[in-house]
Amino acid sequence: MIIAPSILTADLSNLAESCKEAVDAGLDRLHLDVMDGNFVPNMTFGPPVIKSLRKSLPEHVIFDAHLMITNAEDCYMDYIDAGCNHLSVHVEAATHLHRLVTAIRDAGATVGVVLNPATSLDAITEILPEIDLVLVMSVNPGFGGQSFISSVEGKIRRLKSMIDEQVKTGGRPVQIQIDGGIKSHNIAMVGEWGVSNCVVGSGLFNDRGTVKENLAILQTALEV
Length: 224
Ligand code: DX5
Ligand code: ZN
Known about the structure:
34% of the residues lie in helices and 19% in strands. The chain is an alpha/beta fold. The chain has an 8-stranded parallel β-sheet with strand order 1-8-7-6-5-4-3-2.
């Protein structure tokens, strides 16, 4: 199971240090939650901040940007130029999803498509052969620290079958990532559903312990 730390609930006034804490704990895929105050009711950061972060973190660290923005089709390149290795774009926000996905891959990044909790899998059936990852939201995007929506189980299990079928017929393997409300009590469960990449924000960055301590709790939960 890949654990991708979401820095949303980290100390944003000390962003580089928070990221380093996660990297030092052994987590090398940073999940960067980009919010535009339009697609979601909150704002975070954009390419300039990501570019600065890139300079202060080791090269092997994967920058996984979750673009919660309405205009990814216009500005995806700014995120790649800023140093992102992976971009996930919301199916609900893209008019020409195929064009966007192709452009991101042509620019050298891996690409994911994100489904909000109320968005059906049907929205990605046609694009599944073209992408590297599907991000299933288990909260409504916009804020860290929200409660897990367990009804995404059916969607994830069906997605896993679709991907298995695709691989069986020679198609590309697609990773299933989940985002929102992942903690020690549900991380193993979503793994059983077919998730292999968990975004964890408040489960790692909180007042109860260091990232290293909180990660150990998650890893223990995955082992039992
Ligand atoms: C929500 C973000 C998430 C989220 C994760 O819009 O995409 O990455 O903040 O944080 P937790 O784990 O606290 O739900
Ligand atoms: Zn996210």
